[in-house]
Design brief:
Strand content: 15-25%
Number of domains: 1
Number of helices: 4
Shape: elongated
Structural class: alpha+beta
């Protein structure tokens, strides 16, 4: 069993209240979260948490805080679907960045 897998219900510190982890629920480290969010950096993850754009990690043990896989999945499913316009704007931003770096 990996240490990220939680076998039995435990009390964990959430954002101000205690909640239970159900058997078989997985706690994700920031690297796992980064991978699921397209490779964003640790700094970006914690900035998103600070701005309230991403659920905060939970205290699992005194030395480990992580995101519950079910909570992250629910959050992702609730995000808006990217549109063609979003893609066009992102490409335009990337082009402007490339031009600036080339000067």
């Amino acid at each position: 069993m990996k240490h990220d897998d939680v076998e039995s219900p435990r009390q964990v510190q959430g954002s101000g209240s205690l909640s239970s982890i159900t058997p078989g629920e997985r706690a994700l480290r920031w690297r796992d979260v980064s991978e699921r969010l397209g490779g964003i950096s640790k700094t970006t993850i914690y900035e998103m948490v600070e701005r309230g754009e991403l659920p905060p990690p939970r205290r699992i043990t005194p030395r480990f805080a992580g995101w519950l896989e079910t909570e992250l999945t629910a959050w992702l499913r609730g995000r808006p679907v990217a549109s063609r316009e979003d893609e066009r704007l992102e490409r335009a931003r990337a082009r402007r960045g490339q031009v600036r770096r080339g000067r």
